[in-house]
């Protein structure tokens, strides 16, 4: 599907939905992942001002997550330009993308559409660290799962059966030796914040406080794992989101459009330096990693970098092993009228 055909497909979706469509795809190509972040706002704003005030704007969304405050802000910005906000989910809308979906008046999912819990992870300067594998061998901050901390304490109380204040204090002190108190405070703040953001977004279109509470509980606690996948059926029957059924023509257009972005971002091809280099020892390449688009206007997030094959000597291993060094020359959002 070329650029002209892609825009025709977007226009077809707009005609069926009686809306204007903005596409936001963050790539999850292994090794070149991107996420929802606040750097998108100027480019999103360009699309919105070009579209102008509308009765309905649909966000065609594919993402495995990102910064929660960026997702929250994204919804707020879009809603400044429309009376009704819809989210079209061809496949993955996980974590922060699920949070974005909570702000939608209408949700459209294909049968392979996926949501997920919204419990965040926190990277804090005083959090636990681990040594990265050679050849880098550097310390990296380990993300702290908010719900893992809460469930550690719950395990001590409900499963182990610790009830005395003294025993629980010892459990907390043991936790604080691995995760410093200031990092634990950040975890608690993140947990409260994600609940607040979810409640606020749901309140834009859901007056029932009990329903809002149920949705927030399910997405922040009741599914136990951040990796849990919420299907279209569960989103409708359990979360009771306002899912709109897609007719065959709309579904066909949505899937065709997603397949086009899969190809543009090479989502099905894991990035491997040895495959990229082939027989060469050094090579410079450009990688398109995310896209935001509406009819006639395209911004892409592109990385230009050099990949070099090197020999690395590791402690205790007499024979050098092959490794790869990468140097980024350019990495930014840019307007592209050719893609």
Q: Main sheet?
A: 7 strands, mixed
CATH fold description of one domain: 2-enoyl-CoA Hydratase, Chain A, domain 1
What's the architecture of one domain, going by CATH? Alpha-Beta Complex
H/E topology pattern = HEHEHEHEEEEEHHHHHHHEEE
Secondary structural class? alpha/beta
Spatial gap, N to C terminus:
11 Å
Shape: globular
Radius of gyration: 23 Å
Q: Averaging pLDDT over every residue, what do you get?
A: 86
Helix content: 40-55%
Helix tally? 11
Name the CATH class of one domain: Alpha Beta
Estimate the strand proportion.
15-25%
Low-confidence stretches: 134-139
Number of strands: 11
Which strands sit side by side, in order, in the main sheet? 4-3-2-1-9-10-11
Explain what the structure shows.
The protein has 339 residues and is of the alpha/beta class. It has a domain at 3-116 and 229-332: 2-enoyl-CoA Hydratase, Chain A, domain 1 (Alpha-Beta Complex), CATH 3.90.226. 41% of the residues lie in helices and 24% in strands. It is built from 11 helices and 11 strands. The chain has helices at residues 3-17, 41-51, 68-79, 96-102, 146-159, 165-178, 181-203, 209-222, 232-237, 248-264, 273-277, and strands at residues 20-26, 54-62, 82-89, 106-109, 121-122, 129-131, 139-141, 144-145, 282-294, 297-312, 321-335. The strands form 3 sheets. The chain has a 7-stranded mixed sheet, sandwiched between helices. Strand 9 (282-294) and strand 10 (297-312) form a beta hairpin. Helix 1 packs antiparallel against helix 10, helix 3 (68-79) runs parallel beside helix 4 (96-102) and helix 5 runs antiparallel to helix 6 (165-178). The longest helix is centred in the middle third of the chain and has 23 residues, at 181-203. Mean pLDDT is 86; it is low at 134-139.
